[in-house]
Every structure is written in structure tokens, then in C-alpha cells.
Amino acid sequence: MTDISHDVQQRAAAVPADELLTRMGYRAIGPKARERLSRVLADPQLGLATPEYDFHFASRAFSEALCKALAMEPADYLPALDAIENPLIEARHAFKPWLFVDTGFKRADRPGTAIFVLAIMESKRRLRLPPDTFRLPWELQLQRAQQVVRRHMAENGGEVPLWGRIQRYLFCYAEDRKLALSPSGEVVGDASDAGISQASITLKGKPVSFLAAGVLPGR
């Protein structure tokens, strides 16, 4: 728990929720406002990690209004909120290294397989790395990617359902930068020119993704 969240919790414990929300500028106080206040107070990051807007405040403005309503000094709470929010902003915009499982698949290999099925199975060849990987020095990022490769090979026996036998892994460590890794995790060489396909479908002209959050390339 951060120091500011502890301070906020202590101060808020002495003020009824509806009174606190009134101080923050809410007029019609309903269950959603009370729930948001409770959620932010219980969060060590004071809600800054979750983009939210309730037609009164976005996440940062809510936290600032809360601190102000608790009679905290701007000189104290603004830098403290910055210290929480800045790393979150950095993480939100940073390229997240990931792995593509390359089986050399070609559409002609499965002529009878519906594109809908391929789109559903797309996530099977995209491996996310732990979320803090981008913060590591590049050498440690590579080591982590190699560990994930070896674990994935051991767990799947060198096969990806539908896509076929694993030929290599592409470690995507920056925009348009890739490194080829063997199935045993050894570095093969630069593969920045290698293309990565993605099976997808559209609905009413809009792309439909079956990839879970965090599996999209670099995000």
C-alpha cells in the first residue's frame, strides 16, 4: 500500500461516504458513486490504473477531488498521485515483448478449415510474457522469452493445435524488431523482416478479435 492510499483511507474512515461524495461535488448520490468511492479507497493505486468516467470525474480527477475533499494539501497529494500514475502511463504506452509461435502455416495447408475457426485459434500461437518484462534490461527480456519457449515446448510437445508442428519462435521485442528462437530456445538470428499473419474475421465491416487482452502484438 502506498503512503498516500494509507493516508486517504485513514482520513476517509472519519467521514461518512455520502458526505465525502458531496464534498467532492456529487449532487445526486447513488449506489454507483458509493461503489466507486469504496473501490477507490480499497485500491492501493487509488483507481488510477483503471480508466473510468462517471460523467463527473475521470480516474485522475476523481482521486484529486477525493484528496481535496479530505483536506489534504495539493503540494502533498499531487506529487504522490504522479508517483502512482507515471509508471502506469509508461506501462500503458510501452511496447510489450511477446512471442509468435511459427509453424510455417499456410492457408492452403487447411483448405477445409473455416476462417472463423482459425480466428478463434489465433491466440494459440501468440504467447504473452509476464507484464513487467518490458521494464527489464534487454538481455533479461531475452532470457525470459527463452524460458517461456522451453516451457511452451515441454507443455505442448512441439505441436500447436490446428497450426501444426512448431518450427521456431519469433521474439518480438520492439516495433518491427524480431529475433528468431529455435524450439529449444536458442537464438537463431535476426528475423525483423519476417511477416506475421493473423487470422481474423469482420462483422458488419468491423474486425472481430478473439485475442485476449494483452495478447495483441506489443500491447
Question: TL;DR of this structure?
Answer:
With 219 residues, the chain is α+β, with helices and mostly antiparallel strands. The protein contains 7 helices and 9 strands. The strands form 3 sheets. The chain has a 5-stranded antiparallel sheet with strand order 2-1-5-6-7, with helices on one face.
3D structure, described in words:
This protein is α+β, with helices and mostly antiparallel strands. The chain is 40% helix and 16% strand. It has 7 helices and 9 strands. The strands form 3 sheets. Strands 2-1-5-6-7 form a 5-stranded antiparallel beta sheet, with helices on one face. The longest helix has 20 residues, at 74-93. The radius of gyration is 23 Å and the shape is elongated.
What are the key terms here?
single chain; 219 residues; alpha+beta; 5-stranded antiparallel beta sheet; two-stranded antiparallel sheet; 9 strands; disordered C terminus
Please give the alpha-carbon distance between the first and last residues.
Answer: 27 Å
Rg (CA only): 23 Å
Q: What general form does the structure show?
A: elongated
Structural class label: alpha+beta
* Average pLDDT level: 89
Q: How are the strands of the biggest sheet laid out side by side?
A: 2-1-5-6-7
Question: Got a strand count?
Answer: 9
* Biggest beta sheet summary: 5 strands, antiparallel
* pLDDT < 50 stretches: 213-217
Helix and strand element order: HHHHHEHEHEEEEEEE
Hey, roughly how much beta strand do the residues contain? 15-25%
Helix content: 25-40%
How many helices? The count is 7
